[in-house]
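User: You have something folded?
Assistant:
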Amino acid sequence: MRRMLTGIGLGASILASGVLLATPATAASSGSDFNVIFPGKKPATAYHVENTADVIGGRITAKSVISWEILEDQVVDNSKRFTSFKITTRLESRPGKDSADAVETSKTCDLTQLVNDHYTWFLIDPSNTCTAPSMIYDGEVFWSADSTIVYDIEGDGKGSITQELLGSPLVHG
């Protein structure tokens, strides 16, 4: 009986190892950069967004991490820079490599107060990370993370500006 249980345990371990090896523990990321020039003497600022599609524990998630820094040595005008600054992160799928993307889940995060309160931000923190709800990973589908930022500069009179960002490479297999 003991040999039989050991054999069953060994078989289960081999099967579990095969399942673990068949499920990719991978992340695919890409970054986008853009600059914002403000009216008056507010400091011009460079923004960087890293979009990542990540497979963890049989689920896939899309997240966007944003960081920024001023492009000038001094801050002459420290007044409010944005009336609105929001990022929408999307988990997208497609049945074939060259097919069109379909949005599976998305989340919009309002970062207005954070970007107005800090001229520079390099931390990877929940406050500057927008994560779309995860889904069960299907290796037959091609997955990616994508995002869009919509912002409105205080006092420029131009209204909302949409910044399309580079999506992550495809995750598949």
The chain is about 15% helix and 45% strand.
